[in-house]
Amino acid sequence: MSRISRQPAETSAGNESLTLHFGRDELVIRQRYEILSIANDILIGVWFVIGSIFFFYDSLAYAGTWLFVIGSVEMLIRPVIRLVRRLHLQRMNADSPAPSAAEHDF
User: Cα dihedral sign for 91, 93, 99, 105?
Assistant: First the structure.
């Protein structure tokens, strides 16, 4: 569960400080999805770079085309990873009145 609270003590600039509270499970889930997203992005780059190199050789153009198709499918997987992460966190925080903090897209 995550929650956001404002501390009553003021900082030197006169602004209130902001404290974020995350549950251990939420942080673990966020880290796992971030790692999955990073690995997917690396594979996308690998498929497109190798596919591009293959296009320099007529004998490898067919394989290069398939690498572009694989890279394109993985690009479709990117939003699926984000959606599954968001749904997973919403299920975890269903009973929490505060919205989940740190809504970064990977």
Answer: negative
As to burial, measured by CB atoms within 10 angstroms (0-12 exposed, 13-18 middle, 19+ buried), residue 51 is: buried
d(CA 84, CA 56): 38
Give the end-to-end CA distance of the chain in Å, rounded to a whole number.
20
Strands (E), the chain: 3-10, 16-21
Beta-strand pair 3-10/16-21:
antiparallel
What angle do helix axes 24-54 and 61-92 make, rounded to 10 degrees? 170
Divide the 106 residues of the chain into consecutive groups of 10 and give the mean pLDDT of each group: 48 56 73 92 96 97 97 94 90 64 54
pTM beyond 0.70, yes or no = no
Contact 93, 2 (CB under 8 A): yes
**The two structure tokens encoding residue 1:** 């569960």
26 vs 91: CA distance, rounded Å: 11
